[in-house]
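Worked Example 4.2. Consider the chain below.
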Amino acid sequence: MLPQQVIATKRDGCTLSPAQIAEFVGGLVAGPERGWSDAQAAALAMAVLCRGMNAGETVALTHAMASSGRVLDWRAEGFDGPALDKHSTGGVGDKVSLMLAPLLAEAGADAGVIVPMVSGRGLGHTGGTLDKLEALPGYATTPPHDVLRRALRVAGCAIVGASADVAPADRRLYAIRDVTATVESVPLITASILSKKLAAGLHGLVLDVKVGSGAMMRSLPEARLLARSLVDVAAGAGLPARALITDMDRVLGLTAGNALEVQEAIDFLSGDAREPRLLELTLTLAAHALHVGGVAADLQRARQRAEAALAGGGAAERFARMVAALGGPADVLRAPRLATAPVRRDVVASRAGWVRRVDVRALGLVVVALGGGRRHGGEPVDPRVGLTQLAVPGQRLASGEPLARVHAADASAAESVADAVAGAFELDETAPEAPTPVVHEVVPGRGTERATSAPQSRP
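Applying the procedure from the previous section yields the following structure tokens:
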């Protein structure tokens, strides 16, 4: 069928058939010379953004994109346990994947759990897990398949990027969406995320949907819509999944910036420092992943498994084995060989007050401006730069106390972002209300009536 016929169907608000969706995905893979042109793909993406897709269409698109390249089968490669993973919609200071992958592998070791975690790079103001890991000298984020398989054998987990032959239709479509103002389409976001996860051969998935000033979704209704789409389409595609809606109205953890976040993750795993909200989110995600994957009969037992894996040091050792297996430092827990920025400057409060609000997006953009993210494709990332000692909502500051510490390549770069850092913090004379929990809601998979409030065992 002609591309323009498929485009017109969605333009007119009609439902695309599985055959039409397969035609579109096949055209993406064939390329602009033999298949769909960039203009035609962009036109359909815009039609989907404006007209939407129902659940059946989104499931069909997800399946077609997952099947557009290689689909991994870990059981066929000799791994008997479930393959589990987590996906986050992105935030500032979100280094959870670095701790969660080895934590799941350790907590589910007796069940043969593996964590082939397919991660991405920074996008806009949000950091990327692959950029963080590349702060470790020698770490291979796109290893050959035999190296990936060996890392899973040795450590039970491997955090890598998607290879070129995994969901290639999504790779092309995302590049087109990125430059045509169609990124925000919920069906296209859903299909993009889940197609890569299905192609990775997963048996269980937990989704971290961020909401707040530093997230793609600014409001709870927006986050709920995306979370529900993700779990429903995952169920329709045969992948057990659960979504957590989590807070991004403050930087997650104590740092923002690639090498700085890797060091925080190492300190977390080693037990040297564990910021309470980061600890709570990591353990909660781990419990839900173990439960969804059938490793634990209920959330309480799943949580106990995760806590024991962290407290006993097993998760830290698995992280070290993963890093070494993928070419990174051989003794990363004690000698990570992370580069440090030559300039450090504190940005201080101009007056006393309570931190009432933080513009997390603005702080993410500061990290990008320092060189810790990309302003355009292909731009190199400086792993050294970022922010530490960040003041948090509810904190009382005296005049002259630090709002944040800037780590920069030179003095002029530190000076250039000082006003933006200061402007991201809103101080008030009165104490704000109690801070919001790090987990707002749990959106269960199909079979449960509605989202539930998430219990918090720690602040």
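The radius of gyration is 22 Å. Residues 447-459 have pLDDT under 50 and may be disordered. Compare this with Example 4.1 before moving on.
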